[in-house]
Automatic annotation (TrEMBL):
Entries under Pfam families matching the protein: Cob_adeno_trans
Keywords for the protein's UniProt record, in alphabetical order: ATP-binding, Cobalamin biosynthesis, Nucleotide-binding, Transferase
InterPro entries the record matches: CblAdoTrfase-like, CblAdoTrfase-like_sf, PduO-typ
A Gene Ontology biological process term: cobalamin biosynthetic process
Protein's name in the database: Corrinoid adenosyltransferase
Originating organism: Desmospora activa DSM 45169
Length: 185
């Protein structure tokens, strides 16, 4: 099987229900979730299976869920059953709560950083925020699965929580924003 088809050489790509320009907001939305997915693998390879085994497991599950997000976002016109559900959002919330318990109480805003692993997870967080913004723009113009937007919103919170937990497990302090006062009490 050839990897190239030449069908996109004129600047269009296939989505469920037809063809669109490669810079279409729908393609931007699912393309950005693909960027998140690729960078999740970057975070995983920085993990020690002994210290971060549960994180590896959870992030691998998220990679599969991000494929589901992309599939839901790729639907234009002809619709099939959406895969992203409220249950997936609730599952993320449980993970967030669990990882948040591992990190020290937040006193100030947290800058991306600390360990190499935490930094990679913060990149996942900001890429997820960008994907969420793309989905918000898409939803203004076309029908989308509302659960995708909720999922991405929660997923960015997950990456924040797991980045802080990774620092805590690795004995590295979060990088606090020092130019502001204590904002969390």
């Amino acid at each position: 099987m050839r990897l190239y088809t030449r069908t996109g050489d004129a600047g269009q790509t296939s989505v469920v229900g037809g063809r669109v320009d490669k810079d279409d907001i729908r393609v931007e939305a699912y393309g950005t979730t693909d960027e998140v997915n690729a960078f999740v693998s970057e975070a995983i390879i920085r993990m020690d299976p002994q210290r971060h085994g549960d994180m590896i497991r959870d992030l691998t599950e998220i990679q599969h869920e991000l494929f589901d997000v992309g599939g839901d976002l790729a639907q234009a016109g002809r619709k099939r059953q959406y895969k992203v559900s409220a249950e997936m959002v609730e599952h993320l919330e449980k993970w967030i709560d669990r990882y948040n318990e591992e990190a020290p109480e937040i006193q100030r805003f947290i800058l991306p950083g600390g360990s190499s692993l935490s930094s990679a997870l913060h990149v996942c967080r900001v890429l997820t925020r960008r994907a969420e913004r793309r989905v918000v723009s898409l939803a203004k113009e076309q029908e989308t699965n509302d659960e995708v937007r909720r999922y991405l919103n929660r997923l960015s919170d997950f990456f924040f929580a797991v980045a802080r937990a990774a620092n805590a497990r690795d004995g590295v302090d979060d990088v606090e924003y020092k130019r502001g006062g204590q904002v969390f009490r």
